[in-house]
Automatic annotation (TrEMBL):
This is Nucleic acid binding OB-fold tRNA/helicase-type. One of its GO terms (biological process) is double-strand break repair via homologous recombination. The lineage of its organism: Archaea, Methanobacteriati, Thermoplasmatota, DHVE2 group, Candidatus Aciduliprofundum. Keywords: DNA-binding. InterPro entries: NA-bd_OB-fold (IPR012340), SOSS-B (IPR051231).
Length: 425
């Protein structure tokens, strides 16, 4: 029985045979291959999705690929790839901490050790009990703390796979570990920042390929707008609710002579779950227009939406009228709240904010009238939206719409017809 079957069996047993192995295997493959979710997390999600209790999943020994940002207890067998030490002072006593990279056959991870039971050298294989993980600069780190027990294993008993996953930009996810992308620098702005009292240069900007765009930060590396680069050994972190590509001189970077056509293809909402997206294109149907859409009044000082002339912060104010839409778009794989600003709302409604005010007045102050007008224009209407999508655990996906378009169903039918003709049908 291979590992995959073993995981399917775990899930099957917890569900008490209520769901067949084939369904479970299909789900598991989908989560791992398409969503690039670590196996332990995938298993938990599938068990709870299929009505089981995910806490029944036992995971005594983990693999690097399974490690999440806040694992409280980690038992794992590792090989030391690099190890460095650093002296520091605490309570007047000189102490030493260690840091470096460890790995197993599923991948590599940085570690920090505040204490070492045994002296570790590069190349040592070690069994670790009761370590924990934390997130630092958006990247998972393994920590050997006071309660961590280490014992040396026979040499070469752990093999290391330096996993560098080749990926298209649209696929990039913080859980992927090291990645390799080929992309074109669309924007690059140098910045100097102080890190531990040392000035360091970082370039921030946007890189794109034929599937999409992503913001990046490049540490101690010069990049220029227009460069086409193959970056191998970068990683993805979540920054302000969206993915960001990070790399430094440890990555291997090669300048390419070829050009890349940067374009966006529509992404599925499912693929944005848990990571968000930068300037992405989404196609779907508006299924709901939420409360708070239409004519609203805001505090002129702080922009809060007010229901009276009293701002909780600024007291009595003269509220400023505004228009906005909070709608829900469904693309068949998931839902997303999309927020249209005043200008976009005016375009959708075909009226400006003053006209909206007079319509409300004509209806004896009933603000719902505007929301109903929006519902009439948008509900069940297919749209193509572009913008930044923020993923927050509590609220799901939210897009601040940058551009929108109504999808013309006739065009779609026409395109399909043309395609069939080309194919000779
Ligand atoms: Zn205010």
């Amino acid at each position: 029985m291979d590992d995959f079957d073993r995981h399917v069996d775990d899930i099957y047993n917890i569900l008490g045979g209520k769901v067949d192995r084939e369904t479970i295997a299909k789900e598991l493959r989908n989560w791992i291959v398409n969503f690039k979710v670590p196996i332990i997390e995938a298993k938990r999600s599938i068990v709870s999705k299929l009505g089981g209790d995910p806490s029944k999943l036992t995971n005594n020994e983990k693999k690097v690929v399974d490690l999440g940002p806040n694992d409280a207890r980690v038992d794992i067998k590792l090989k030391v790839i690099t190890i460095n030490s650093k002296e520091y002072e605490l309570d007047g006593i000189n102490r030493k901490m260690y840091y470096g990279i460890v790995g197993d056959e599923t991948g590599t991870i940085p570690f920090t050790a505040w204490k070492l039971d045994v002296e570790l050298r590069k190349g040592d294989c070690v069994e670790v009990k009761n370590a924990y993980t934390r997130e630092w600069q958006g990247k998972v780190q393994l920590v050997f703390g006071n309660n961590t027990k280490l014992s040396l294993l026979p040499p070469n008993s752990v093999n290391v796979k330096t996993t560098i996953n080749p990926a298209k930009i649209v696929e990039l996810h913080p859980k992927m570990g090291f990645v390799e992308v080929v992309g074109k620098i669309l924007e690059a702005n140098p910045k100097e920042v102080m890190v531990d009292g040392v000035p360091r240069k970082v370039y921030e900007g946007i890189i794109g390929d034929d599937t999409g765009e992503i913001p990046f930060s490049a540490w101690d590396i010069e990049v220029h707008k227009g460069d086409v680069l193959r970056i191998s050994g970068a990683y993805v972190r979540t920054f302000r609710g969206m993915p960001q590509l990070v790399f430094d001189p440890r990555a291997s970077i090669e300048k390419r002579e070829e050009n890349i056509d940067v374009r966006e293809i529509p992404v599925t909402l499912e693929s944005l779950e848990g990571k968000g997206g930068f300037n992405v294109l989404v196609e779907g149907v508006i299924i709901d227009v939420k409360k708070g859409s239409g004519l609203i009044y805001r505090c002129p000082e702080c922009g809060r939406v007010l229901t009276s002339t009293i701002c909780p912060v600024h007291g009595k104010v003269t509220p400023k009228p505004d228009l906005r839409i909070k709608a829900v778009l469904d693309d068949g794989t998931g839902g997303m709240i999309c927020i249209f600003n005043r200008e976009q709302t005016e375009k959708i409604l075909g009226i400006d904010v003053n006209k909206a005010i007079s319509i409300v007045q004509e209806n004896f102050g009933n603000m719902m009238v505007i929301r109903e007008m929006i519902e009439e224009k948008l509900i069940a209407v297919p749209m193509r939206l572009r913008g930044n999508v923020i993923s927050k655990e509590k609220y799901g996906l939210t897009m601040l719409v940058r551009d929108f378009d109504f999808i013309n169903l006739e065009d779609i039918a026409k395109n399909a017809e043309n395609l069939l003709e080309e194919l000779g049908w």
